[in-house]
Amino acid sequence: MLLYFQDQAGAARALANAAGLACHCVDVHRFPDGEVKLRLPHQLSARVTVFRSLHHPNEKLVELLLLARTARTLGAVHLTLVAPYLAYMRQDMAFMPGEAVSQRIIGAFLASLFDAVITVDPHLHRVATLAEAMPMEHAIVLTGAAPLSDLVVKLKDRPLLIGPDEESGQWVALAADRHGLDFAVCRKVRSGDRDVAVALPDVQVSGRAVVIMDDVASTGNTLAAAARLLHSAGAVSIDAAVTHALFDNGAIDTIRSAGVGQIWSTDCIAHATNTVSMAPLIAQALTEMFAN
Ligand code: R5P
User: Fold this and answer.
1) Distance between CA 238 and CA 69 in Å, rounded?
2) What pLDDT does residue 125 have?
3) Could you tell me the residue ranges of all domains in the chain?
4) Fold match, 2-143+277-291 / 145-267
């Protein structure tokens, strides 16, 4: 059985179809004061999968707390969270004394509610595995870099893949390796939410079709900063592929005005740029986990 919320019905139903699961929408009532009340199907199967992608996460985390605790009382023995986008993974250390290390706190919170988690390209930079941030038996990580890379090679002729910062190196290397493409990674210094300085690597860009790949784009400033440099360096085309299309207000304009043509993303977060469905890979991961 798969439970989902109405605002993510499309991706949840696609997953339920791919995995052969019956799916049910959780009824959510929002009170005038901002509190929520959930209503689940009154008879749950022993194994329940919950679909919740966690962009704009704060209210969703409370919903998951209410849902998971209620599901246990209604008969669920094993709870899996499918969170194609996992929030709070970027705050993985205290950069200043006194800062909350959100990755560990939210990771431990979700691990206290669920027996398993399946996610896509969590932003793991200073930790090697998701289980370090989210201690549970099944902490399964899938990648959008592979299907995005498959799409890119269909649409562009031998593109040069560029990662806009060091963290993106893991996904860009994987995407390039899959199709024997050239790749390189920029250096980035962030001085604020919307302030980034990017330096291009020492690589021949002139005359190349370039695709910038990253796990996530939020304000779009990282992609835009890299695109401006690539444009100056003589790239014949600049496109972008991201796993998580957070794209807040104005991000697409920021990216396009920097000279980016096509923008492709996975459906981990619903957005007009979605071109790759993760449902088949998530369904396969669910099937394999339950087979074990
Ligand atoms: C951070 O390291 C991530 O990989 C992204 O590069 C970053 O979150 C993008 O943020 P923005 O689009 O706001 O520059």
Assistant:
1) 47
2) 87
3) 2-143+277-291, 145-267
4) yes
The verdict on the CB of residue 220 being under 6 Å from ligand 1 is: yes
Task: List, as one string, the DSSP characters of 30-80.
Answer: E-TTS-EEEE--SS--SEEEEE---SS-HHHHHHHHHHHHHHHHTT-SEEE
Over the chain, what is the mean pLDDT? 97
Q: Closest ligand 1 atom, CA of 246?
A: 12
pLDDT in tens, 206-247: 999 999 999 999 999 999 999 999 999 999 999 999 999 999
Cα gap 34→48, rounded to integer Å:
27
Q: Which atom of ligand 1 is nearest to the CA of 251?
A: 12
168 touches ligand 1 (CB under 6 Å): yes
What digits encode the pLDDT tens for the residues 32-44? 999 999 999 999 9
CATH class of the domain comprising 145-267: alpha beta
Given this structure, which CATH class describes domain 2-143+277-291?
alpha beta
Which among 222, 102, 99 is positioned nearest to 230, based on CA atoms?
Answer: 222
Ligand 1 midpoint to CA 199 (Å): 15
Query: Please, are residues 61 and 92 in contact by the beta-carbon 8 Å criterion?
Result: no
CA of 85 to the centre of ligand 1 (A): 14
The percent of residues in the chain predicted with pLDDT above 70, rounded, is 100
